[in-house]
Amino acid sequence: MGINSTEVAYGFGQLGSAYINTGGDSLIPPVGYGVVCIVPLEDITFATLAAEDSSKYINDVAGAQGLAVGFETTDYGSGGLTLGGTEVFPKGVPIYGRWTEVEVVGSAICYIG
Fold first, then answer.
1. What is the DSSP code (8-state) at residue 103?
2. 26-58 pLDDT, tens per residue?
3. Over the stretch 2-31, which tens digit does the pLDDT of each residue have?
4. Which strands sit side by side in the sheet containing 17-21, from one edge to the other?
5. Residue 98 vs residues 46, 58, 71: alpha-carbon distances, Å
6. Which residues contact 32 (CB under 8 A, 6 or more apart)?
């Protein structure tokens, strides 16, 4: 049995993209979807980065993969930190995850899936 190509496509941004920049509103994807990749067009920081699951994807609320050492599970690891808002993400380096709201200082392309 093969994999449904439509289901796979949703994880790679084939549902669209958006340009965002400093001073714009937060990008909020369509209901039921998320921002799955962020590509900075210049060095950026995040004003808001809200993850669909803050324990799984990098965000500004909690340390994703941030369980205490020795308490890792089959779904979550240890050692991840919460973004503080000052971390710089360099131009051109894609950031993968699944976010429900994104706001940057700088400019970026966000892919929806």
1. E
2. 999 999 999 999 999 999 999 999 999 999 999
3. 555 555 555 566 789 999 999 889 999 999
4. 17-21, 107-112, 35-40, 95-105, 45-51
5. 15, 9, 24
6. none
Give CA separation, 113 vs 13, 94, 108, in Å: 4, 15, 16
Does residue 15 or residue 88 have the better pLDDT? Answer: 88
Q: Record the tokens describing residue 39, joined without a space.
A: 């590509």
Sign of CA dihedral 43, 98, 6, 77: positive
Distances in whole angstroms, Cα of residue 61 to Cα of each of 42, 54, 74: 24, 7, 22
What's the CA gap between 85 and 59, in Å, rounded? 10
Domain ranges for the chain: 5-54+87-112
91: which DSSP letter? T
Place of tokens 């979807």: 33
Q: What are 60's two structure tokens?
A: 């500004």
Q: Is the dihedral of CA 96, 99, 104, 107 positive or negative?
A: positive
Phi, psi of 34 (to 5 degrees): -145, 165
